[in-house]
Known about the structure:
It is built from three helices and no strands. By secondary structure, it is mainly alpha-helical.
Amino acid sequence: MSLDEYELPEIFDAGDQLWREHAACRGLDTNMFFPERGDYHGVEAARQVCMSCPVRTECGEYALGFPDYAMPGIWGGLSGRQRREMKWGKAS
Ligand code: SF4
């Protein structure tokens, strides 16, 4: 299953997701974008795909709209931790 086929839980407002049609991750295994905690190689591999993605901004902005309790995975080249820091600042 690829990210463009990924079924988001109902808590997410699907909104306009036409950008997904241009995603660099289309056709790739969705699991690649949900690496295990501490799998730095997996995170880097996902980010490499995102860095070449023409809709990276749209994807990252979309993921920033996720509720704080549902922010796993690499979206727009950003990890859940990076998105939380962007949204609420660094934890002290
Ligand atoms: S930024 Fe990454 S996760 Fe988002 S659509 Fe592009 S390749 Fe997929």
